[in-house]
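Annex B. Sample input.
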Amino acid sequence: MDKIPTVKDVATLAGVSVGTVSRVLAGELSVKTVLRDKVHDAIDALGYRPNVMARALRTSKTDVIGLIVPDITNPFFSQMAASAERAALEHRHSLMLASSHNDREAEQSHISAFLDRSVRGIIIVAANVTHPAHVKSKVPIVSLDRRFADFPLISINHAEAAALVADHFYELGHRRIAYIAGPADTEAGRARREGFVNRIRALDEKAELKIFSGRFDYESGEVIARRLLAQPPNMRSTAIAAASDQQAIGVLRAARDLGLDVPGVLSIAGFDDIHLANLVVPRLTTVRQPTDQLARRAVKLLLERVSEPGDEALSASLIIRGSTAPPPDQAGHQLKTGRKSRQKE
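Annex B, continued. Sample output.
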């Protein structure tokens, strides 16, 4: 029977100390890249597999990162989870996923379960609830996209990203505009609404702006859109921005059922750039969140164990597709604002 390779065998083949191998296996970022690569090459060559349970008993930690999302059926959070899993694997860690179903008690239960399993750290996309000011934890916790308690938040600048859509509508010539906001009890929902509304007001105080609020789901978009689009053509909004792609796709559905041409008489834009946004007809103009970058930064922050980490905001981009165009009475009308965070697909 072949001898099972040990840490010492890996160290000998890699030409490093046993301590260096242990630090690489622990995911410590202080190890030089060249040494880390030698260790990984030796591990692959020998087929070495660390004894996870033994290490967990010795160090009270596993090479597992916990991720809690509000709703795994939401396409954006599914994409975020996939990005987090890839980021964890880059650091030779596994990802344990849980869904809180937007329930605070379930969220707390998952946190306790992760702590009982000695995870290396926990990433939390918070539920739509009000959290206590502080949660005690012996392992690092990072908020992702939505803030959890007082833990550091990795997200995009939601207000700045929403303003990109406002600029786009204004450049196209739209002056009768509607905005479907997300839940007011989420920091992201409030920031997106504020960013969009403030930008429209700054561009043109006389622009007709209607604001509605709903959940980040298809049904909210469709229900609100049916109410909006039932108005006479001369009073109806010529552009609708939504705080999520799901809402925007609900608007698309309502417009199709009512026989309204998109983007001929109605422009629609979303937020997040879920995979479905590039599959619906017409393809959806939307704000793209850099999910891979966000997830990588959250994982790295957990493993770096910074003493006093702060919030970090990444930039998003506007993806222009076939669901937006000038209003029917101003075809071809274009204005310039100088903003560049956009691309056409």
